[in-house]
Design goal:
single chain; alpha/beta; Rossmann fold; seven-stranded parallel beta sheet; about 50% helix; about 15% strand
Length: about 260
């Protein structure tokens, strides 16, 4: 049987590393991509130079970089590209009335949304040749609810959700399913950095955040990786255009 290759963008981050590990565990060869070469080096070390792991530097905001990486993956890895996880993303607090908010907002949208457009455009062509593929986009509940001080982040994730639904319609006839995962509050280095840049979350504030999540805890990268793995390995193409909110039930509110 031909080896299946899963491409993971932003693989050096918290979600990316967990997703990479999970896909390796179920038998995929994984092409882990990231703009940060050191992060890829650390990932290889963390995964003990796994024989089915290959790493590639790639800038999702640069269409030429994505095309070059795709060619390298296709030529150097033995198998066919069947899975793309658009995970690369950044977060930033930018209030609309603040100076320089436009520059930060543009960067967030460029990475989170334009990056997914670039990668989907390139890697879906490889899937189309074999009439099979699974594309999983990492969105956020911020794309459903909005986020004060994070309009660009919320807009990028809302855009990704709607792009996922649109691509599902376009690519479905080619047996390529497109889905999105929308995590809620998850404990990652990126979230910690976002919080620390403004104000360290107090113990009481942390307790409050946990109290509004019915399962009583933060989400983790492993939680997200489990759902991504399910979507990547799902045999039926009838699961298409789905957006799975992973927030521990927080969206149902509390009295």
């Amino acid at each position: 049987m031909t080896q299946q290759i899963a491409v993971v963008t932003g693989a050096g981050g918290g979600f990316g590393a967990a997703i990479t590990q999970a896909l390796l565990d179920v038998g995929y060869a994984v092409a882990a991509t990231d703009l940060n070469a050191q992060a890829l080096h650390d990932l290889r070390a963390h995964l003990q130079q796994h024989p089915r792991l290959s790493t590639f530097e790639m800038d999702v905001t640069d269409a030429a970089s994505v095309e070059q990486a795709a060619q390298a993956i296709s030529q150097s890895m033995d198998g066919v590209i069947t899975v793309l996880v658009n995970n690369a993303g950044i977060i930033g607090r930018a209030y609309c009335i603040a100076e320089k908010s436009i520059d930060l907002s543009r960067q967030v949208i460029d990475v989170n949304l334009t990056g997914a457009f670039n990668c989907t455009a390139v890697f879906s062509r490889y899937m189309a040749r074999n009439k099979y593929g699974r594309i999983v986009n990492i969105a956020s509940v911020a794309g459903i609810w909005g986020a004060a001080g994070g309009a660009a982040y919320a807009a990028s994730k809302a855009g990704l959700i709607k792009a996922s639904e649109s691509w599902a319609r376009e690519l479905g006839p080619l047996n390529i399913s497109v889905t999105a995962v929308a995590p809620g509050i998850c404990k990652t280095n990126m979230l910690n950095k976002f919080v620390d840049e403004e104000a360290q979350m107090s113990a009481d504030e942390a307790k409050l955040v946990k109290s509004i999540v019915p399962v009583g805890r933060w989400g983790t990268p492993d939680d997200v990786a489990e759902v991504v793995t399910f979507l990547a390995t799902c045999k039926t193409n009838y699961l298409n255009a789905a957006v799975i909110a992973m927030d521990g039930g927080m969206r149902v509110g509390t009295l």
